[in-house]
Design goal:
The chain contains three helices and 16 strands. By secondary structure, the protein is of the alpha+beta class. InterPro entries: Cell/Rod_1, Cell/Rod_MreC_2, MreC, MreC_beta-barrel_core. Belongs to the MreC family.
Length: about 350
């Protein structure tokens, strides 16, 4: 329709009629004069409206789903981030708890040996400086670390410092084939030298080929001159095998180290040696032996063994035959052969 004066008048007239019908409908309430017309329109246009709605609703739902999918995706991503943060927090708490236990154990060892230590964290494991068994720690010259200092943890001897940088240092582990440390046997004080063998037990050569050594004996560091590279008394390991001396001047032992070299985390560098040798005081307490249960058998006096192995009491004042061919007791305590044809009363008469 073109925009003309007549079309504008018609539009105004239709709007006025619509307002009039609305006013009449509202004032009429349930008795509205247009109610019949409304019902007739609903009857005619209702099916058409349902059909259009059935066709349009899936499209509307799809549009709404597309509109809401972004919000759901953002919420899902937020929940995933929260879960990841929670898992990281839990993992961090577990790791912090483990490190706290390691630190506490190491401080107890340092206190028992009177070692002044500088705590450090292992930040790398690998072949630095050409060594096959080394670790890198996060302390260096700026922290007072020097070459040839003893490194330990809560279990025992870890190694010695070989290279020092401003903020890091390299430690040669005690199981490296190039590593050697003087050792002393617990109680007997037998001296030797322990060498690393990689992932195998340490090899210890005792100076005394006739030394009495057995499986389970323990070793500590003997110490070096001026306490470098090793301070005395640091636990080394437990004897796991003893080779026969065979008349040699030395005796070979194989020692399982206390330290697990493949799972190092918190270590301590001994920056101040003890004023006196702690001897065996740093070694962990020996496990208590498990008691072996014993069985006590009590024999009842005056009982005789029966055929089933149980003791049977004997009736007082009566002779009881033991078995064929055996003597039976009499009232006077003597024994007579069974079946001799005479009883005790006949003999007394």
């Amino acid at each position: 329709m073109r925009d003309t004066r007549e079309s504008r008048l018609l539009l105004v007239l239709l709007i006025a009629i619509a307002f009039a019908l609305i006013t009449v409908d509202i004032r009429g309430g349930e008795d509205s004069p247009v109610d019949g017309a409304r019902q007739a329109a609903a009857t005619v246009f209702g099916p058409i409206e349902d059909g259009v709605s059935a066709a349009v609703n899936p499209v509307g739902n799809a549009v709404a789903a597309i509109r809401d999918s972004g919000e759901r995706h953002d919420r899902l991503a937020q929940l995933e981030q929260e879960n990841a943060a929670l898992k990281a927090k839990l993992g961090s708490e577990d790791r912090d708890s483990s490190r706290l236990k390691q630190l506490d154990k190491m401080l107890k060892v340092a206190g028992a040996g009177q070692y002044g230590i500088k705590g450090a964290e292992v930040i790398a494991i690998g072949a630095a400086q050409g060594f096959s068994w080394t670790i890198t720690i996060d302390v260096g010259a700026n922290d007072g670390i020097q070459r040839d200092m003893t490194v330990l943890n809560g279990d025992g001897l870890v190694g010695r410092v070989t290279t020092v940088g401003p903020n890091t240092a390299t430690v040669l582990l005690a199981n490296d084939p190039d590593f050697t440390v003087g050792t002393r046997m617990e109680s007997t004080d037998e001296l030797g030298f322990a060498s690393g063998q990689g992932d195998r037990p340490l090899r210890v050569e005792l100076l005394n080929g006739k030394a009495e050594v057995k499986k389970g004996d323990r070793l500590v560091t003997f110490g070096s001159q001026a306490d470098k590279p090793f301070v005395p008394g640091v636990p080394v390991g437990v004897v796991s095998r003893v080779d026969p001396s065979g008349g040699d001047l030395t005796r070979t032992l194989y020692v399982t180290p206390y330290v697990g070299f493949s799972k190092l985390d918190i270590v301590g560098v001994v920056v101040q040696a003890p004023t006196k040798d702690p001897r065996d005081t740093v070694l962990p307490a020996k496990p208590k032996p498990t008691p072996t249960p014993t069985v006590t058998v009590t024999v009842t006096p005056g009982a005789e063994p029966s055929a089933d192995g149980e003791d049977q009491p004997q009736a007082d004042g009566q002779d009881q035959p033991l078995a064929d061919g055996l003597y039976q007791p009499r009232a006077d305590g003597q024994y007579q052969p069974p079946g001799d044809g005479q009883s005790q009363n006949e003999q007394e008469q």
